[in-house]
Amino acid sequence: MADRAVAIDGEHLGARAQRARALLALHRQAEARTEAETAAARDPRDGHVLDTLGVVLSRTGAYHAAVALFGKAAARRPDQADWQYNLGAALQFTGDLEGARRAYEAAVAVAPDHHRALSSLVALNRQTPADNRIAELEALFDDADPDPARQQHLGHALAKSFEDMGDYPAALAWLIRAKAGRRRAARYAIERDRALFEAAARTDAPASRGWDDPAPIFIIGLPRTGTTLLDRVLSSHPNVVSAGELGDFSLLVKRMTGTPSPMVLDVQTFEAAKNLDCETLGRTYVQSARAAAENRAGEGAARVIDKMPLNVLNAGLIHRALPNARILCLRRHPVDSALSNFRQLFATDFPYYDYAFDLADAGRYYALFDRLVAHWRDSLPSDRFVEVAYEDLVADLEGQTRRLLDFVGLPFDPACLSFHENRAAVSTASSAQVRSPLYSTSIGRWKRYGDGLKPLIDALNDEGVIAT
User: Fold this and answer.
1) Which carries the bigger pLDDT value, residue 406 or residue 297?
2) Which residues span the domain enclosing 434?
3) What are phi and psi of 401, to 5 degrees?
4) Residue 261 lies in a domain
5) Structure confidence by residue, pLDDT tens digits, 156-188
6) Of the ranges 22-31, 64-73, 189-198, which one carries the lowest mean pLDDT score?
7) How far apart are CA 352 and CA 361, in angstroms?
8) Is 133 part of any domain?
9) Domain with 96 in it: what CATH number?
10) How many domains in the chain?
């Protein structure tokens, strides 16, 4: 009877794990997390259940709890490479880089062709002529039955390897090869984003009553331009907590407009957003963001950061819904910005970053971003919207930190200058870099690539952006 009871309970927990995963797919983050936490509290024993619950908790910001579940799953079945990989990713998010290495290596030991684990190992370890994985990565890339997502991971690992060894032309060539398959599959056209950016710029027109709460701080911009650095600096302040990259604002707008379009961010939704009840939007967003921040940090704070870069499209709506929120927009040299996006291995199933599969598209996208930011600069109050140059932040961390803390209404705290000691989890591509003190080596990175960046620079010049 006892064995049967255990089996029935296991089936029940398995069903709850799948329900949590389904809620996650429906963007019902809070419900998914509650369902996963309830199931995890029953001490599941099945490895598949443990791994599934770990995925849900990781994607809802509960990284430490996810580590515990992934660790149990991997301990039960060390031969499951994907579980080892998931453990490594969660450990990396929490800052345990050595533990992450061990987990990735365990995944590769089980499955030598595990492209995500190989790519993650290369990202964590500096490659040298005497110690690198170039030969095995090239062999796997040239597999007779290539998969675009797999080739993207392997090609990015190869590009990073050659960058580490100072061969930037070879690195760029590998990036282009890595993205070719995904570029063909995405069939990206800049006209789609041009219409989206133009629609976003029209959302700030009507004045309306929003939710009067100064708690939210939005960090926006292009990815890989210093948003995570600024997030870590400000969230090191005792009165600030980061909720990470939330999709909540866009999802609330989508739900409240009720548009039938399949995308969350699209022209139809922005057009419908002109008639939103902005007070309800602002109040509901703050409740959601506070809950997300408390889930990550385990405690409340006076101010909450949302560092979703794509909120640059929502800046007008954000100000209408939350007139006392502060919006900080990261800027960086045009070529460095576009190149950093091209160099980034974005989630392969996220269409909003499809522009980053091609150098010229990345340049044209930067121009759209540049024009939209200029619009926000002219239309939003200067005490609510401010631009931050990445180069200035690196050159004068204390001066810029004092300026920005004053902008958001907080006193200076020296802990902000020791951002690399912040132990909060980081799930972005900068999860390893922000654990180290400030460095300036990425400024002017584009100058190392030579003539290979001509399509990017030409695109910027054609769009009227001064590239050099």
Assistant:
1) 406
2) 190-462
3) -65, -45
4) yes
5) 999 999 999 999 999 999 999 999 988 988 899
6) 22-31
7) 13
8) no
9) 1.25.40.10
10) 2
Higher-scoring residue by pLDDT: 284, 345: 284
**Both 83 and 199 in a single domain?**
no
What's the confidence (pLDDT) of residue 6?
40
Domain membership flag for residue 77: yes
Total-model pTM: 0.89
The label of the residue with tokens 């995405």 reads 186
| pLDDT of 125 above 60 | yes
Q: What is the mean pLDDT of residues 388-406?
A: 96
Residue range 55-75: mean pLDDT, rounded: 92
- pLDDT at res. 425: 58
Q: What mean pLDDT value characterizes the chain?
A: 90
